[in-house]
């Protein structure tokens, strides 16, 4: 059985819009997923995301895109 991901843990996600520097989202999981959905809707195929990782296990930042 798969463990359920808590929605209130602090996570990091890095994204890059084509031709720009990468930026990072640091928020609780629920807000992070909403921001990813909004950015995807706004930029379409011109944006790339890293995987969502816990901020406590990745203090140096999310993986690069």
Descriptive report:
- The structure is a single chain.
- It contains 1 helix and 4 strands.
- A hairpin with a 5-residue loop joins strand 1 (10-17) and strand 2.
- The model has no long low-confidence stretch (mean pLDDT 90).
- With 65 residues, the protein is of the alpha+beta class.
- The protein has one helix at residues 29-43; strands at 10-17, 23-28, 47-49, 53-54.
- It is globular and about 35 Å long.
- It starts with 9 loop residues before the first strand and ends in an 11-residue tail after the last strand.
- Strands 1, 2, 3 and 4 form a 4-stranded antiparallel sheet that branches.
Describe this structure in a few short sentences.
This protein is 23% helix and 29% strand.
| Uncertain residue ranges | none
Determine the strand fraction and express it as a percent band.
Answer: 25-35%
Shape summary: globular
The average pLDDT score comes to 90
Q: Sheet with the most strands?
A: 4 strands, antiparallel
* Count of DSSP strands: 4
Order of helices and strands: EEHEE
Count of discrete alpha- or pi-helical segments spanning 4 or more residues? 1
Distance between the termini: 30 Å
Structural class: alpha+beta
How much helix is in the residues? Answer: 10-25%
Radius of gyration: 12 Å
Provide tags for this entry:
65 residues; four-stranded antiparallel sheet; alpha+beta
SSE map:
Elements: E1 10-17, E2 23-28, H1 29-43, E3 47-49, E4 53-54
Antiparallel strand pairs: 1-2, 1-3, 1-4
